[in-house]
Amino acid sequence: MDALPIIGIVLNGALAVVAVLSLRDNHKQIKEGKEQARIAQAEAVEARQDQHRPLLILLHGQTGTNIAVSNGQLDYSHASQYVAYKNVGSGVAINIQGWVYGYIPENYSLQLATRFQFEAQEPLPKDGEKGYNARSNTLHFTFEDKIGDYSLLAPKGMIARVTLTYHDIFNRKHAAIFDLNPDGGWISRGFPKIDKDLADLDKETGQRIAQANQAVLDAAAQRRAIQPPN
User: Fold this and answer.
1) Which residue has better confidence, 123 or 110?
2) 58, 66 in Cβ contact below 8 A?
3) Which residues are 118's β-sheet partners?
4) Tell me, what DSSP letter sits at residue 126?
5) pLDDT in tens, 15-29
């Protein structure tokens, strides 16, 4: 066989491989370019929305947040705790809710705990201030209940934790977390964007309780079914 035809076949094969690899690289570059464009667009949208982001802080002093304390702990004998806050952000805050918890040790075995809670009745514009009496309520809870990465419970050494959650006009969810220290001062822990707010957590708790109650009923029905007749 002549060498030239063989060389031609080899060259054609090599060109075909180069073409396939080139198409594959082009497809990869197009895919990466689309992904980069998607990320850039999402970041641009978020930046525009952040220009209208509300930011809630606690008010303190004589007319501000008033948490009752007894023997260095949150006083649960009170029917309510007063929580006052201000919107220092640049947008309107809506669907505002607040919970107040004290410190609960990790060896606490009960599934019930008292919290104080309120739900705002109206939106809060920029520079707006508002206060509510957070009412006492004894409910099921778990130590896994969190808002973002933050526990709802006051850390050890703190008297109380106030957790506020709220939405912006784009229905994004935000939180503000504050701890009351033994000296009576407030410590800001963070203002995260969140996926679940207090209302979502309350709904999940209700579903968890309903499932647990149904499991008890189902178990009782099974025991009755297998009992021998008298």
Assistant:
1) 123
2) no
3) 98
4) T
5) 566 666 667 766 667
